[in-house]
Amino acid sequence: MADQQQVLIGGNKAGSQIFMDAAMANRHGLITGATGTGKTVTLQVLAESFSRLGVPVFSADVKGDLSGVAQAGKTHEKISERLQHMGVTDHPFEGCPVLFWDIFEKTGHAVRTTVSEMGPVLLANLLALNDTQSGILHVAFSVADDQGLLLLDLKDLSAMLNWLAENRKELAREYGNITSQSVSAIQRKLLVLKESGGESFFGEPGLNIEDLMHADFSGRGVISLLDASSLYSNPKIYSTFLLWLLSELMEDLPERGDAPLPKLVFFFDEAHLLFNNAPKALIDRITQVVRLIRSKGVGIFFVSQYPNDIPDEVLGQLGCRIQHGLRAFTPKDQKAVKVAAQTFRQNPDIDTETTITELGVGEALVSTLDPKGRPTMVDWCLLAPPRSQIGPVALEEKNRLMDRSPLKGRYDTSVDRESAYELLAKREEELRHKRQDAAAELEREKAAAKTEKRKSSGRQRQSVGEALIKSVARTIGSQLGRSIVRGILGSIIGKKR
Ligand SMILES: Nc1ncnc2c1ncn2[C@@H]1O[C@H](COP(=O)(O)OP(=O)(O)O)[C@@H](O)[C@H]1O
Ligand SMILES: [Mg+2]
Q1: What is the pLDDT of residue 60?
Q2: Quick check: CB of 40 below 6 Å from ligand 1?
């Protein structure tokens, strides 16, 4: 049935229901408004609707208040009023299937990835490297990728960088100049990342994105919530993780044509953190991913205070707009309101700019995409209430859910496979022997040359350099058996999962 594929947003002034066509979810969306105006509850309403349609959802939970989506809501006068206004009679209170995730491994399943999988682009962003340092990081990945060497954690990367510095003369010919000062600078930034808790993020077992794509036994899409309560103290770690996730989805999911339902809906709360101080090159790549991920069936909803928190190139690709109230006290506010109003297709019955400043809590101006993909005229909307609980889930309930999680045990303990660090250490040992042998050989040759005047010591020395690269290649080559190819945001393409 057609209207089964619709997501109820709310009701307009006349009480007519406003829907979003689920088939248009991969044309992305934007939820904006001042603090306390209802953004998180709107996200919750959309997330539970997608879940009911069988679509898995991923969202960061910044204040912990989204976790209530796991628990049934309760009847309340204000909720009944809303339902009555939009003529909804069927509103069973129910929770959704939820998986809890946590980068810092405390309140949910651990989300990890490897240094190799994150790639140089996002890692340079995470470490806030300058151009020179970023160039060296690219060399580190280049050497590792060419050889199929997997860098699992920060320790591996650190070992790889040391190796680069030590062998910079031999590497210079192929990879250009590597200064030990720049390598040290990167090492220091790695240390800072480690100290801010970034270490737990790297390692194995890495998150398998398949685990974000489940449905429960009744066919409802599972909602994955990432604990982002320490987002503000680690904005770079979060934004990099979320970008990495997008990048993985982008590179791993197959192309598909238009479909009645998206494969996954991704909510990017506090999206301004993603774009704050992001270099233009990164924004360009994000823009590209947002554009291309559509054909993979992934819908992205950015949630932020103002539409102009989002770069124009990205903003232009967001189909569904839900604008909650904004205050217009300062000239800066007024400008933001104006910009917000201008992004809508105007409605002759609504003074968009004034209305934005007068919206009550849980009210919004809404424009969706019609079946042809054109924006609908902006309309005033009283948002539907959620069926689940507004506010955080009770701790006991959360613990009970965690205990019953189908993924229990899968990500709990990190393992340190024999990785680059260990391999490079072993390699170093072998190299030391080789260098000693080569030096001894050289001595012997020199002695022999005195009498025979035949062999060239230069040639011999060069072959030590060659042996160095080849021997690393051999060790590392045994890890993947092929070189690594990277996508737009640096994710590894064509992985077998
Ligand atoms: N759609 C809604 N239905 C019922 N109550 C709502 C709705 N939207 C917001 N509210 C009320 O407003 C409060 C604040 O909303 P919230 O989503 O947390 O704001 P924001 O995320 O913008 O800071 C909620 O705790 C809830 O009581
Ligand atoms: Mg909120």
Answers
A1: 92
A2: yes
How far does CA 187 lie from the centroid of its chain?
A: 24
pLDDT score of 264: 97
Q: Which atom of ligand 1 is nearest to the CA of 324?
A: 22
Q: Is the pLDDT of residue 475 over 70?
A: no
Q: Would you place residue 497 in the very low, low, confident or very high pLDDT band (cuts 50, 70, 90)?
A: very low
- Name the packing angle between helices 280-292 and 115-126 (round to 10°): 130
pLDDT of residue 476: 41
208-225 confidence digits (pLDDT tens): 999 999 999 999 999 999
Q: What is the pLDDT of residue 474?
A: 46
Residues 6+ apart with CB under 8 A from 195: none
Read off the tokens for 261: 């339902």
In order of their start, the domains of the chain are 2-112+206-403 (3.40.50.300), 115-201+419-480 (no CATH)
Model confidence pLDDT, tens digit, residues 31-72: 999 999 999 999 999 999 999 999 999 999 988 999 999 999
- Ligand minimally distant from the alpha carbon of residue 64: 2
**Token code pair at residue 186:** 């990167």
What residues contact 180, with CB distance under 8 A and at least 6 apart? Answer: 165, 168
Task: Give the confidence band of 330 by pLDDT, cuts at 50, 70, 90.
Answer: very high
Determine the Cα–Cα distance for residues 117 and 101; give it in Å rounded to an integer: 19
| Ligand 2 geometric centre to CA of 227 (Å) | 13
Would you state the pLDDT for residue 461?
A: 35
**DSSP E strands, 328-378:** 363-367
In whole angstroms, give the CA distance from residue 312 to residue 90.
Answer: 40
Q: What is the mean pLDDT of residues 129-138?
A: 93
Q: Ligand 1 within 6 A of 448 CB? A: no
Pick from 84, 361, 382 the residue to mutate for probing ligand 1's pocket: most ligand atoms within 8 Å of its CB.
361
CB atoms within 10 A of CB 172: 12
Does the C-beta of 73 come closer than 6 Å to ligand 1?
no
**Cα–ligand 2 centroid distance for 40 (angstroms):** 4
Question: Could you tell me which residues come within 8 angstroms of residue 449 by beta carbon, excluding any fewer than 6 positions away?
Answer: 455, 457
CB crowding 294-322: b at 16 or more within 10 Å, else e: bebbbbbbbbbbbbbbbbeebbeebbbbb
Q: How many A from CA of 163 to the centre of ligand 1? A: 53
Helix and strand counts by DSSP (H, E) for the chain: 16, 12
Pocket flag, ligand 1, residue 362 (CB < 6 Å) = yes
Quick one: which ligand is closest to 86's CA?
1
User: Of 9, 7, 33, 26, which is closest to residue 270 (Cα–Cα)?
Assistant: 33
Helix ranges restricted to H, 210-330: 235-252, 272-275, 280-292, 312-315
